[in-house]
Automatic annotation (TrEMBL):
It is an enzyme of class 3 (hydrolase). It comes from the Bacteria. Its EC number is 3.2.1.-. This is Glucanase. The active site is at D149 (proton donor). Residues 1-27 form the signal peptide. It comes from Streptomyces olindensis. InterPro entries: Beta_cellobiohydrolase, Beta_cellobiohydrolase_sf, Glyco_hydro_6_CS. Pfam families: Glyco_hydro_6 (PF01341).
Length: 321
């Protein structure tokens, strides 16, 4: 794994854009402290397979989805958050694997979209929650994707609400820097279809990107890896031109095997993408959204709630129909 990272670094170093890269918030590299990525043993896909061994779809879902390293999402449903994150990274650490966690509990979450509305009850409640989240990880190696959609979901917000959100994200990054020295945090930057690269660079910088390892793209979306890597490079050009630094980025490839048909909420005909790995045009390609988990009461997931595992959707996504 170390050799692959060095090879990637050597390739990227030839690009003038990245010569101005800001130093990482941490000296430690969690990918070299572990031996591969952690596959969540209690993912929704894994639980479904275990509960439905006789189902004709179970074998394919088990082989193609349930055992692929995928992020675990943490929010209000996670109970005492420091205990929850501590237990998860502890289990991964015991196996010498790198866990990927998603923090998804920001105050006024999904304020404009609505399908995943909720989150902490106030900015101060969020500050307490995210401090405990980071404290649970402590010194163990981890990757954290910080608050998907939070910088794309500005369309219906007032400037005061936007400023409030930026403050919460900046505070969250400070907590990880203080409490979780072996964690790489990626501040979510939406996807190429949401905001221009110039706009997203401004939003990332305003939310404290300098404190983060980098930014994440395409979380729970379907756009191709090529589209996302081009967008990530464009965001970095804007960061370099405006602020004098660039950052690594990661791409969610869990459901982008067929690309996007223009719909973001449970579209039909999508396909699983490249499994979690280092490199691939970004710092990492990650499965952040579990294939088969609903985006909400919409599309082929009509009647479902966000996060609900839909085996038929998962099965069709394996084969792309």
């Amino acid at each position: 794994m170390r050799r692959r990272l060095l090879a990637l670094a050597a390739a990227l170093s030839s690009l003038p854009l990245l010569l101005t890269a800001a130093p990482s918030a941490h000296a430690a590299d969690p990918t070299t402290m572990t031996n591969g990525f952690y596959a969540d043993p209690d993912s929704s896909a894994k639980r479904w397979v275990a509960a439905n061994p006789g189902d004709g779809r179970a074998s394919a879902i088990n082989a193609s989805i349930a055992n692929t390293p995928t992020a675990r999402w943490f929010g209000s449903w996670s109970g005492t958050i420091g205990t929850a994150t501590g237990a998860y990274v502890g289990a991964a650490d015991a196996r010498d694997k790198l866990p990927v966690l998603v923090a998804y509990n920001i105050y006024n979450r999904d304020y404009c979209g609505g399908h995943s509305a909720g989150g902490a009850s106030s900015p101060s409640a969020y500050a307490n929650w995210i401090a405990q989240f980071a404290g649970g990880i402590a010194g163990r190696p981890a990757v954290v994707v910080l608050e998907p959609d939070s910088l794309g979901d500005y369309g219906c917000m007032t400037q005061a609400q936007i400023d409030e959100r930026r403050g919460m994200l900046t505070g969250a990054l400070a907590e990880f820097n203080r409490q979780a020295p072996n964690t790489w945090v990626y501040l979510d930057a939406g996807n190429p279809a949401w905001a221009s690269a110039a706009t997203m660079a401004q939003r990332l910088h305003g939310a404290g990107l300098r404190q983060a390892r980098g930014f994440s793209l395409n979380v729970s979306n379907y756009l191709t890896t090529a589209e996302n890597t081009a967008y990530g490079a464009a965001v970095n050009r804007e960061l370099s031109a405006r602020y004098g630094y660039t950052k690594p980025f990661v791409v969610d490839t869990s459901r982008n095997g067929n690309g996007s048909n223009g719909q973001w909420c449970n579209p039909s005909g999508r396909r699983i993408g490249t499994p979690t790995q280092l490199g691939g045009g970004a710092e990492m390609l990650l499965w952040i959204k579990v294939p088969g988990e609903s985006d909400g009461n919409c599309g082929v997931g009509a009647g479902s709630s966000a996060g609900q595992f839909l085996p038929e959707v998962a099965y069709k996504m394996i084969y792309g129909y």
